[in-house]
Here is the input.
Amino acid sequence: MFLPGPSSPLTPILIVLGIDPSSTATGYGLVELDSRSCRFLQCGCIRAPSNRTLAERLALIYERLGEVVATAAPHAAAIETSFYGKDPDAASKLGEARGVVRLVLHQAGLEVAHYSPSEVKKAVVGRGQAAKEQVQFMVAKLLKLKELPRPLDASDALAVALCH
Here is the structure.
């Protein structure tokens, strides 16, 4: 998509989808970038009930994220890489959720960039150890939003898109 711009006859528009994967709450955020600015398009969270089996939660992520991609038609995608804690079961579930997200993006023909949580925080806040609330505040400021994007999974996904 192109829009007329003052410096050139056509200014390219790029729609970036950022994703913060999880097996229970996968955040997504879409921003539109041109040579002069970035603009908020939408964000949300795919909540998979914890009382469902992992397979059911992964299927829900696959379906809902597929709908987001089909509707928004992003040009690029970026995913936050896994944070490895002390719980191997949680790390395994997160890895499976990331795999489903990558499959959806691959099937849509999107190349995917990967950013660590500290890279995303540094890009948006200026330091890699920022709190989620600081990221949320800066995302709102950078995108000139009147309200903080909620939930935190969605603001994290917007931060991933901005990082890209």
Summary: The longest strand covers residues 38-47.
